[in-house]
Amino acid sequence: MAKVSTASISRALNDPDKVSKTTRERIEKAIDALGYTPHFGGRVLAMSRTNTVGAIIPSMANAMFASGLQAFQEVLAEAGVNMLVASTGYDPQQELRQIKSLMARGADGLLLIGSERPPQTRDFLMKRHVPYVLSWCFKPGDDQLCVGFDNHQAAYDATSQVLAKGHRRIAMICGVRAGNDRAQDRYDGVRTAIEDFGAPAALVQVCEAKYRLEYGAEAFAAIMSGNRAATAVICGNDVLAAGALMRARDLGIDVPGQVSLIGFDDIGLASVVTPPLATVRVPQIEMGRHAARVLLARLSGGTQPESVQLPADFIHRASLAAPPD
Amino acid sequence: MAKVSTASISRALNDPDKVSKTTRERIEKAIDALGYTPHFGGRVLAMSRTNTVGAIIPSMANAMFASGLQAFQEVLAEAGVNMLVASTGYDPQQELRQIKSLMARGADGLLLIGSERPPQTRDFLMKRHVPYVLSWCFKPGDDQLCVGFDNHQAAYDATSQVLAKGHRRIAMICGVRAGNDRAQDRYDGVRTAIEDFGAPAALVQVCEAKYRLEYGAEAFAAIMSGNRAATAVICGNDVLAAGALMRARDLGIDVPGQVSLIGFDDIGLASVVTPPLATVRVPQIEMGRHAARVLLARLSGGTQPESVQLPADFIHRASLAAPPD
């Protein structure tokens, strides 16, 4: 495609100063168009699988991904397959770099989190025929192989439970939505449930916060200092809710007496705090296990596996009660 | 060394059925003796660094490693170096497999946790001249490059604080010590501090538990159901302490009114639970950052870096109080 010899391509990749700028640019253009990645050891890889799978997650510092990965890895290990993990910091460009890096290091396939990514990344996955499975999401109608749950539906159901308790003025601390379809879907689920319920129910305030305790605490303080008087705060995950709870304790605000708090994920933290957090149980372990089985099936080359939707149930705990009179 | 042609070695590695059993065994013996790992793309690697570093941690599902790795990765990223993570499940054999796998995939260097490993692993690291840095530990006199803190000293100091509060009957829930020098050092530190204090102070009970909430809860129930009447329970990490606290709540045992609880690590959980956990602040972020800088310096080939010892301070919080009268 670049109309140059393979030797020139090799030089352009390994020793670019020895190739003219014109040639190098032609080669780079072809590389982009074809989605090519230099293969460390192409000969060995062409002969056999490396029995290594890559998992690319948004953040190492999130207990939810951690326990899912642990389960994913255990099933892979039973099949003699090794796992390498890379993280993206919720940055789509960093995700693409990690995908290329893991494929260049001979990963047989990938686990990716969430279903939406930039066209450039989708193109690369398609052109390189990367075997991958998505997790932590399940969107009806998505044509990608996926093992997860419906974030929108789960948030909708949780909000319905909050409304059923009698709450009408609801606030939300949601995760950063840009580049995170799970955070966006959770927000949309909360909003839609309140809209569907109709007046006098209202989403009185929305704060966006990174998934860290201190940001949950700050957002909660901001919500409580306003005059919109939310009686329930739904949080984008348990870390945000635990941060909110910590700040409530510091401010002398009674949970759930004055305000109810609702988390999402059901990480260990949720049942350890006082009061324990009402939350959505994300099937972390089951997702990890199923995702491994589905990816192994895809790599085996036999009958191609189907997407798997798992349930995400609302867990009633003491942080959710009826609103004060 | 195996007295065979390179072609035979290549066949033995890539297509073993084509090589006689005797030859194969001779080759495997030489491979073991020399610590050789097949190099995916040896030619490319011989020419240049891959700008990828491997981090091999005991468990993905531990918030403490997660935040340290996040910091480690951030410093690497500033230098244009990528990180791949693998985990061992606290199994020394699995650690050796991960070391070999990451080196075979072209890692320039490694971050390893803890300082003690089987001779086979030490041999491999030495013979292959693997550039590595140890973290989460610091042992006076250790000749390995290390960025960490002294687990024994930190546990000794924490126990001294518990004794200073007036506790004389102390129990410990410690992590699994086999193959985990940090857990062993923490246990030794607690034991030694109590011995140095002398009678009537006594370590009345020791339970070993995996680092999970439910095992901490179980161990706490076992300790409280005995008749040794500990007034303080020192835990090998915060997860165990949080599990103990959760069980105390379920059993109606007042912390710290009836029994004090002490954690280790100061993960986010420690300040979120009620009462907040007295604990040892492990310098997770600083360790991650320093470890990255030291490893990068080692890889740069300039002046070789020195080991770095960081402080691990005791944090007083409400879960530690004077014993009941």
UniProtKB/TrEMBL annotation, chains A, B:
<keyword id="KW-0804">Transcription</keyword>
<protein>
    <submittedName>
        <fullName>HTH-type transcriptional repressor CytR</fullName>
    </submittedName>
</protein>
<keyword id="KW-0805">Transcription regulation</keyword>
<keyword id="KW-0238">DNA-binding</keyword>
<dbReference type="InterPro" id="IPR000843">
    <property type="entry name" value="HTH_LacI"/>
</dbReference>
<dbReference type="InterPro" id="IPR028082">
    <property type="entry name" value="Peripla_BP_I"/>
</dbReference>
<dbReference type="InterPro" id="IPR010982">
    <property type="entry name" value="Lambda_DNA-bd_dom_sf"/>
</dbReference>
<feature type="domain" description="HTH lacI-type">
    <location>
        <begin position="1"/>
        <end position="47"/>
    </location>
</feature>
<dbReference type="Pfam" id="PF00356">
    <property type="entry name" value="LacI"/>
</dbReference>
<dbReference type="InterPro" id="IPR046335">
    <property type="entry name" value="LacI/GalR-like_sensor"/>
</dbReference>
<dbReference type="Pfam" id="PF13377">
    <property type="entry name" value="Peripla_BP_3"/>
</dbReference>
